[in-house]
């Protein structure tokens, strides 16, 4: 099963379940996995606790062998259901801390924690005062410590924390406050970091309208809050994102390592506008299904159940993602277990920038933020 919110007033990830269905069509058109047909169930969690629990109950009822490549902010609702049935959660979006603590979770990226820590580390040498605009939610509460861990690692002061409703239709008050905070030191060019998911574009619209001097500060954000589509829709090279730093989990979308995923989209979902190869949700779903496929292939002719898939992953299976991440293996002895994130096995991020309206790599190599996270206050 793959689930994600669709059609809500907050963050939506319709490309994730849509790509999961396309992936199943592609796999089955090419002989299945070890000759087995892949059946994908999808569910809309609607950004609601009750609906997230319904999705998990459906996974249990229909004997899903894994939940793969999904997004939900409501881990307190779905993890108890999955844990009770022994169903592994492979490659969630990394939006909740539980995804990095549950023994049944197998994350493929470092979640929002790594993105903010990596961004803070870069901004420490590029910015004066920093203002973070983030959702006023439980998930949003985890963002300031991570950004500040990166800023502190670079010898910078902590960011000003600006809370905002994640489903607002305008953000003029928050934009004004962020600008005031970022321009508090007239001798340095400050930075505004909006991390509002799908509502980041709404914030940036308010940001541009608030004051003519918005260009006096630099903007920076994380993938998932902005992608190439957003940059195009806000003016391309003349957008407020021009020159912005953006951290992501994976290589830039124009990297040749995405060729296999793009082939799946081309062959099975070319006309599906929900599926965008630049969307980190779609990219995460591709990687998560790659993990699932290798776990099933490792079983050879053995029975495929939630228990056997989980067993393959727990027995030290080393998964290759074609260079999109380091090789993945989930063990409880990893470095970040000491700070309460025992399932976080990939703390690498990429640094990208908006240049002439295009999101391109600012550095070719991955940046490992493990040591930065070790100094973060995650409680």
From TrEMBL:
<protein>
    <submittedName>
        <fullName>Lipoprotein</fullName>
    </submittedName>
</protein>
<keyword id="KW-0449">Lipoprotein</keyword>
<dbReference type="InterPro" id="IPR028081">
    <property type="entry name" value="Leu-bd"/>
</dbReference>
<keyword id="KW-0732">Signal</keyword>
<dbReference type="InterPro" id="IPR028082">
    <property type="entry name" value="Peripla_BP_I"/>
</dbReference>
<comment type="similarity">
    <text>Belongs to the leucine-binding protein family.</text>
</comment>
<dbReference type="Pfam" id="PF13458">
    <property type="entry name" value="Peripla_BP_6"/>
</dbReference>
<feature type="domain" description="Leucine-binding protein">
    <location>
        <begin position="7"/>
        <end position="320"/>
    </location>
</feature>
